[in-house]
Design a protein that fits this description.
By secondary structure, the chain is mostly helical. It has 2 domains: about 55 residues, no CATH class; about 100 residues, Arc Repressor Mutant, subunit A (Orthogonal Bundle), CATH 1.10.10. About 50% of the residues lie in helices and about 10% in strands. A hairpin with a 6-residue loop joins strand 2 and strand 3. Helix 5 crosses helix 6. The radius of gyration is 20 Å and the shape is elongated.
């Protein structure tokens, strides 16, 4: 929502609406509240960030619509279907897509490069250097992937990664055929 105050709106009417909404949401659990708020934002064409503990990409997108995570989950029952629909063109896109599968559709908070490349190999699309592919995604502006942890002190230490909000959006554009 805009940070500026709309002087054409009656502040008392706004306060009454907030009170009514708070009363209506009080008996609901957090998932139900989230669905109601997403519906309301979509219905009234408002852009909001729900600030949940989940990925920011689960919030309302810039155009005011739900990102459709459930629709994506229903449409792609396995990583092979997702891969076929998105048609990644290069190693970084392959890594990004499979990372999306683990993080967004399987609910993992982060992922490691070996698991992503293993899944790509099962699909017949392994990358020659998964670390280079992920580093490419990290070095882009805006970043599509970030490193969250490193276990061990050597260069070959196990690293954990996470897709950024922009990385999640990038994959969703690939799925829609916009990239």
């Amino acid at each position: 929502m805009s940070d500026t105050i709309d002087t054409t709106t009656d502040p008392m009417a706004e306060l009454t609406a907030m009170t009514d909404i708070a009363k209506a949401l009080q008996p609901l659990d957090s998932d139900a509240i989230r669905r109601v708020l997403i519906w309301a934002a979509d219905r009234f064409n408002a852009t909001v960030n729900l600030g949940t503990q989940e990925s920011e990409a689960d919030s309302i997108t810039d155009d005011g619509n739900d990102t459709g995570q459930r629709a994506i989950q229903d449409e792609f029952s396995d990583v092979a279907d997702l891969y076929a629909a998105a048609s990644p063109r290069n190693d970084p896109e392959k890594a990004l897509l499979v990372a999306y599968w683990f993080q967004k559709l399987n609910g993992q908070t982060d992922f490691d490069s070996a698991t992503v490349n293993k899944e790509l190999k099962h699909l017949g699309h392994g990358v020659t250097n998964i670390t280079t592919a992920l580093s490419s995604l990290i070095s882009r502006k805006p970043q599509l992937v970030i490193q969250t942890r490193k276990s061990g002190s050597s260069q070959q230490a196990r690293k954990r990664y996470k897709l950024t909000n922009e990385g999640l959006k990038q994959v969703e554009r690939m799925i829609r055929g916009e990239e």
